[in-house]
Fold this sequence. Notes:
Blueprint: H1 25-33, H2 36-47, H3 50-58, H4 65-77, H5 81-89, H6 102-119, H7 135-146, H8 151-175
Amino acid sequence: MTPTHLPGRVAIPALPEQTRTPPSPNLLDAFNTASPEEAHHLLLTCLRSLRWSRRVAEHRPYPDLDSLLAASDEAAYDLTPADLSEALAGETLPSLPDGTYEAAHMALDAAHAAYEAKFGHAFVICLDGLPPHEALDHVLAGIRSRLTNDPEEERVLAADELRRLAKGRLVDALRRRDLAPQ
């Protein structure tokens, strides 16, 4: 029997492919020439904050992927606490892999409950480059370690993790051609 898990409790992104292929220049061109609404929609799916996505969209065109990623980072540093809360609220938990023991679900739920009670938002952590079989242990260790932080220190760390997640999502979204010119 597969254990049930409540979705949307902890922000653990889907594990990335072991190697990311940067988007080709024509995909960045499609992003640069897309309507403001299309660009904003794509960015909102990656960044999870209206202000963050608007700021990145408004500064198009980007000459290259590194410029887009740098702009995303820069815009994230200017997020207000409300913007950061909005981005954190947009994070959800994908299902744990099939075959994950019920005890692992319970441990993750308990760790997250303690984290959310202390900090008032979902736990976020970027797992880019981590082998899938290490993800659960890494997440549990991360939550337990970060529970020792004070709230302000943790907001800074959560914001940093959101920036790392955003970079991976932007690259993946452009590579998957989520934004095609109309």
